[in-house]
Amino acid sequence: MNALSPHRDKILSASHLLGIEGLSPPEISRLLDLADTYVELSLQINKKQDTLRGRTQINVFFENSTRTQSSFELAGKRLGADVMNMSVKGSSVSKGETLVDTAITLNAMHPDLLVIRHSSAGACELLAQKVDCAVVNAGDGSHEHPTQALLDALTIRRRKGRLQGLTVAICGDILHSRVARSNILLLHTMGARVRVVAPTTLLPPDADRLGVEVFTDFEAGIADCDIVMMLRLQLERMNGAFVPSTREYYRFFGLNREKLKIAKPDALVMHPGPMNRGVEIASAVADGVQSVIKEQVEMGVAVRMAVLDALSRNLPGGANA
Questions:
Q1: The pTM is what?
Q2: Cα dihedral sign, 123-85-49-317
C-alpha cells in the first residue's frame, strides 16, 4: 500500500495530534482499529510498508525518552519514511535558540511529520502554529501525552474487548502526570468510569472537575476495578516535599500482591514506564500474570504507526478520500 492508495480514507479531522482533547469517539476508534492492523504487521517477518515512502519525519526530543523516541523512530521506518532524530543537546537550542527560531529552522528542512517532546506545556502547539507539516505531541510538560493514552487504550481494548463501562483506577502522581491527563480524557470520552487515587499533595486542585472520582485511600480507590494503572513518582518535577519518603509512599500507595486482591480477580495492571520498582509497584506484580506492561510497549509502536499514517493522509497527496 503506497502513499497514494485510494483506500487510505481520512481518519482524523485535524492536521496535528497535539492532545486527546478534541478527538471524537469515532476518531479514537478509527485510530485504534488502524493500530490493530499494525500490531499484526509487527508479528510478520517482513514488517516494512511503503505507506510513508517519500515522506520525511523529524523527531525532536527536548526531554530524554528512550522508549517513546525509539518507538516513534521504529514506527516511521516501518512505514517507509526517512526518519531523522535531532540531537537537541548538541544543537543551537542548547546555546539559547528560542523555540520559534527552532521551528523556523525545522520548517526550512521541509519535513512532513514532526514529533516533539518538550518540558513546557503548550510547546507543541506553538510549534504547530509555525510549521507547515503535521506535528505529533510526544509529551509536553505536565499537559498531555496522547500516544501513551492511545496505546494504553489499545492494550485494554485488546484484552477486555471494550473500553465503555470499565472502571479504571489511575494511581499515583496525578499532579505531574501528562499520561494521567491524556488517559482521563480518552477513557472519559470512550465511556469508561475513571478514578484517580493519590495522596492529597499529588492531586491537581481541579481534580474533581476532570469528570473522575477522587480517592485519597489507595485500597478504596482500587476496589473492584477492571484496570489498575500505576504512575511513576516524578521526583524530577517536584519542587518541595510532596511525599515524606519513597518508603512511606510505597507503604500507602504502592501496589503489591495483597492490595491487588482488592481489585477484580481479572484486573489488568498497567504502568507507562519507566517503573520505580519498590516505590510505586512491587516486582512480583509488575512481572505477574495480571500485568500487561510489556504489551503496552508492544502496542506503542503500532499506535505510533497508526498516528503517523493517519496524519500523513491529511498532507497534500496523502489520501484520495
A1: 0.93
A2: positive
